[in-house]
Amino acid sequence: MTSRKLGVDEGSRELGLPRPIVGELKLDRSNALLADARRLIPGVTQSLMKRPEMYALGSFPVYLETGEGALVRDVDGNEYIDYICGLGANTLGHNHPAVVRAIREPLGNGVLHSLPTEIEVTATRALVDLIPGAEMARFFKTGADATSAAIRLARHVTGREKVVTIGYNGWHDHFMFDTPGVPAVLRDYTYRMPLMAEAEEQPLLDLIAQKGSEIALVLLSLPYKRIVSAEFLRTLRETCHAHGVLFVLDEVVTGFRLALGGAQEYYGIAADFVCLSKGIAAGMPLSAIAGPREVMSRLAELQVSTTFGGEMLSLEVCKAVLGEYRDTDYIQRIASLGKRLREGINEKSKKIGTPLRVVGYDAIPFFLFADDLPTHTKFAAQFVGAMATRGVLLRRDVSFISGVHTQAQIDFTIDAAHDALTEMAKRGAFEGSPAGARS
């Protein structure tokens, strides 16, 4: 079956470019709301990654008002091409027809009923049909719900208590054992292992070999600034299984981005089960774990329960967007556009002589200025501010390609990056940095 092009059928339209921002970025309404929020909301907003300090406070919008496709408008009326994409959740952009229909048409049936509804069954069937090796799944609301359920399930299945976490897996106690408010004893149950460099691969394998008899699972969120090899992942899986450790992929971010079946399909590997969120419902609040019946069926023996896991509208959207991923060129489109962005910006940066390189997976571009975090952050904060004044919203590191970004918007972003980097270089922002050292 030939895939239809995503974003041009069924009433969708490819939108153009943001209106030019003339002069300084006007943020009067954003700043007024921010002042109120500082008095009313601990941490200003609901997600750490949305706090204004994570971008470029003063030269970056704080509050958005609306979005259509890959364009968003802030509360002051400024328009931008959006690569933040709801922290990766808005895989189909904003206000996509498939999402709108999946909410509007069944809304009259209710939002949450007193007993299970049919959509729980049909959405689960749609999910397991896409995830390699999956025969059963359970729904939750946030990625941290799913990864926490994964840890409890793995401990139950293996009879072991310690876990290995790699990357960011959520805010719950077993992941954030070294942060305020968490009992210190929990650090004895979690090995947090880095995987940002190739040199960190062998220590992970050594840990499993040495402590495997105590470990229930390795929960792996793939790093974004480098592409690990399939050979390493196969070795990691084999090492886990040799010691009775479950190999679990945290695909909260990578799910429905690297391939239709996620990292398992992309790398040709089989996880014991996977954790999913963000793209699973294109921005609606939903998460899940999915895997073979042998493991997943054991979840019924546990106290893992959520009132809102059966909320109907998110499940309707899940079913609809999984169909969009399956029946369109979505996966090929985001990879192709991401490649164009990466190659275009890297070429511009090299010619100017700045240290910026776009690295990682094409659908999840990582804007990297330096390997050491303080240097990277210093440059990245200036860069995302300069890009905002040119009508482009980026994060300081990981950004996202949505299925409705257009080639014209990618090319606009490349040109904006050229202008922003040129401006930074002229004012001496990169003096003393090893510009062009990375290839």
TrEMBL record:
Q: Name one GO molecular function term.
A: pyridoxal phosphate binding
Q: Which domain of life is it from?
A: Bacteria
Xref: Gene3D superfamilies = Aspartate Aminotransferase, domain 1, Type I PLP-dependent aspartate aminotransferase-like (Major domain)
Keyword field = Aminotransferase, Pyridoxal phosphate, Transferase
The reply to whether Cell wall biogenesis/degradation figures as a keyword in the UniProt entry is no
Q: Which cofactor does it need?
A: pyridoxal 5'-phosphate
Entry-linked Pfam families: Aminotran_3
Query: Which family does the record assign?
Result: Belongs to the class-III pyridoxal-phosphate-dependent aminotransferase family.
Q: Give the protein name, as stated in the record.
A: Aminotransferase class III-fold pyridoxal phosphate-dependent enzyme
Organism of this sequence: Polyangium fumosum
Upper classification of the source organism reads: Bacteria, Pseudomonadati, Myxococcota, Polyangia, Polyangiales
